[in-house]
Amino acid sequence: MQQLTTTLLTGLTLGAVFSAFALALVMIWRSTRIVNFAQAPMAMVTTYVALVLIDAGASYWVGFVAALLSGFVLGAVIERVVVRHVEGKAELNAVILTLGLFIVLHAAAALVFGSRFRSFPAPFGVRGLTVGDSTIPLTGFGIFTLVSVLVVMGLLVALFRGTDIGLRMRAAAFGPEVARLLGVKVGRMLTLGWALASVVGSLSGLLIAGGGLVHPGYMDSVVVYGFVAAVLGGLESPGGAVVGGLSLGLTLSVVSGYVGSEVVPLAALLVLVVVLLVRPGGLFSTVHERRV
Amino acid sequence: MLDVRDLTTTYGAVRALDGVTFTAPQGRITAVLGANGAGKTTLLRTLSGLVPAASGSARLGDTDLLTTPAEEMTRAGLAHVPEGRGVIAQLTVEENLRLGALGARGGGRKADLDRVTDLFPVLGERRHQVAHTLSGGERQMLVIARALLADPAILLLDEPSLGLAPRIVTQIFDLLRGLVDDDGLTVVLVEQNARSALSISDVGLVLDLGKVVVHDDAAVLVDDATLRHAYLGF
Amino acid sequence: MAERTLALPDRLRRVTDDTLGRHLLAGLVGAVVVVLLLSFLGGFRVSQLASFSYLAIAAAGLTVLTGLNGQLSLGHGAFMAIGAYTTAVLQRTELGLPLVVVLVAAVLVAGAVGVVVGLAAARLHGPYIAGATLALAIAVPGLAIFWRDLLGGEQGLTVPLPDVPAWFADAVFFLTATDPSSSRYVAYLAGLALVAVLVLLANVARSRTGRRWQAVRDDEVAAQLAGIDLGRARVLAFVVSAACAGLAGGFMAFVVRLTAPSGFTLTLSLTLLTAIVLGGLGSLTGALIGAGLLTFLPQVVTSVGGDVGLSDVQSAELAPLVYGLVMVLVILLAPGGLVGTIRLKRAERAARRAAAAGATASTGAPTSADERTRAASGTGATTGPEDPQHDAPPSTERKRSS
Ligand SMILES: Nc1ncnc2c1ncn2[C@@H]1O[C@H](COP(=O)(O)OP(=O)(O)OP(=O)(O)O)[C@@H](O)[C@H]1O
Ligand SMILES: [Mg+2]
């Protein structure tokens, strides 16, 4: 019983992080039809920004905010300088480009920050909370993870549904040409979309890192899990990404707890393949895949 | 007034527009007619900045359209309803309309939204529906309403009758005529459906292989049987 | 009668006109070069050449899949791992299997897994295949830890070197008057295997099968209308490609002499992708060039790093930095890769010449222009291996259902 609750709670927090990462992928996919595999090293680089500041004596929160800000800038710069040139071109080129960026960011981080494992602080306890005389397997940092992911999602919904800029961003993503004719500066909206997605990616990087170790490759598997979560949700839908992330987190946590942590990536692969073969439009799709 | 001189647009080796010259007078409807591939869509796309012109000039009042980027067009007073119903299918009716108002010259006003839903009551009823659930006619109304919300001086319409029942076409055309007569809107109307387009237009322009072959009063075009047979097929 | 009087150069030309003959001839030359190089080079160079060979085998296989068939695999490191582990496990048994048998087993096992993955991949496109194979790359090394007893866990398995057969030792002694080490033996085999794989793949690419793969890549609807079974074509391409990776993994096990999860990280898969992008997707020459850059560039770059005052650890990161940057630049500036760009230049020059020739321009220009668009539109539309005038269906921007 105790083990099951632990497993489920771990799965929930992990799932929240996957959700955030999947959301970042979905935001970029919707607006530019690109799966941004470089999202993982982008998040990694921003986590190092936080780590450098914290090691230099700044508080966790200063590092946290700095990481998110640098995520914003990095996302914007990468879209504007590099990705812009492959938008709307052959999809293979875009995929290869993001993988090239993946390698570049990895190597650059190893050069600048070193490739050894470094520990990353957590702002809240990473031990289970004590209520009365029993310990519940929910950590302070776990709660922080859940809350921050929820807050970010709330903010995104508010932005996209409730504001003019959010409306412009959605229009630019769904109908770039029509949006231009309606006075939307589409290029700028796409840049902003990448920047915001990169902030969300950074958040998930910080949450994975908290209370653990970071090194240039620490986010590599997260990009796979995030991708699987996004595909579970249909790759198009932010809500789907969240639900996909949570279900994947729970599933993987169960696999890790009862089978072994080494097969977690394999389980993710199986989930991905089964979903793609059985419901190519994602778990929650109602419409069938369009064919030519 | 829209003043187009010697406008040429090329796609690689293809000259889709070849020295097009005409003026579309203020407060009038100019019908642009011609066979498939004549260059009608290219003309509108060049005017609204979606396609770069190779040479020539196009002015709307004091604005040089050829140097104005597409996303500045609504602020310059030009609205373009593209071919094939440019609704943004994933957004709701209301969001599509809001988007139109956002591009308005003076910034959108709530009052305009109400005015447009008065004009097209069906859009008011469906404001919270996602646009891809609309019927063809409703979509066409939505894109026209959206363009009007930008409060344009000139409206470019690309085949608004495409795929619509004749009754709906008449309804939409009458509405256009009304807007022109009451509000002094200028319209450039691209149509395959030459007969009904000319019936509400003031001026007709016939394109053939990217060249203007006829430019005259709509009534003259309708009366000239040789012309009709040669270019308009009715 | 006239045929008998053909002069020798003419006869040679007839051999080179025939593609199979030309490939075999090139293969023969390649084999001679391999033997000569390996006979007279020092130990370090020999092991470098062996690494080059296995990387090139894997890259050639990936080129066939991605360049010819349009399927992007980020998981070929996983197939190499499968080949390497198969090799390691068999080599550690007491059976004393001949090297060739061990390698064939590696190819078969990797090919079998390739069937399974290929079946899944055949139904996916673009980013989905990329994501699924990425997951594969991450998942497979974990299995080595899961089946610790068989596969050695984190530490991995050391791979005993094969015995040098007597005939081989005699042959080398005859050539160089020295006794070959077993690593030299492995290098010979790897080099010759590379030549064989290249000849084989070049022929497959030119065959009906290869043209089907390209047709599927260029336009799946048209290919389907032409009666091509899309699924079969895709799966077959995947299997061939996975088998090559398996063979490469087998050689890698012998060259590195240790098979451990840390040798098969995502980096390896991405490295292979780099190789084929650098060289030019779809071209076997390109795959060779790319593998060459990957093998020999790190040394150069690392020593440059040392010269400008970087530590050894930092210098080691310079090489991937350079590949990554070059990869990004290739996609942005020359999506055809090295070979594609050279072909493009050649086509442009030919077009200019044709235009200058006046009357002939009308016949010369269209083919060159066609080639130009193909080379320029990049990865989705690169030309077939080794042959600028191949007769694949004209490729336009790829439109796939989504
Ligand atoms: N993007 C493009 N690239 C190349 N050629 C184009 C492009 N768009 C249009 N054309 C060509 O330019 C010419 C004019 O096309 P355009 O779309 O302007 O015709 P149209 O008069 O609107 O025809 P329709 O009545 O069928 O809509 C045609 O020959 C067309 O093939
Ligand atoms: Mg048209």
Contiguous low-pLDDT stretches of chain A (5 residues minimum) are: 287-292
What structural class do helix, strand and pairing data of chain C support? mainly alpha
Give the uncertain stretches of chain C in residue-range form: 359-402
* Helical residue percent band of chain C: over 70%
Question: Shape of chain C from CA axes?
Answer: globular
* Mean pLDDT value of chain A: 89
Beta-strand share of residues of chain C: under 5%
State the end-to-end distance of chain C: 60 Å
Q: Given the structure, what is the number of helices of chain A?
A: 11
Q: C-alpha Rg of chain A, in Å?
A: 19 Å
Distinct small molecules = adenosine-5'-triphosphate, magnesium ion
Question: Assembly state here?
Answer: heterotrimer
* Averaged pLDDT of chain C: 78
Number of helices of chain C: 17
What overall geometry of chain A do the principal axes of the alpha carbons give? globular
Number of β-strand runs of chain A: 4
Order of adjacent strands in the largest pleated sheet of chain A? 1-4
The biggest beta sheet of chain A reads: 2 strands, antiparallel
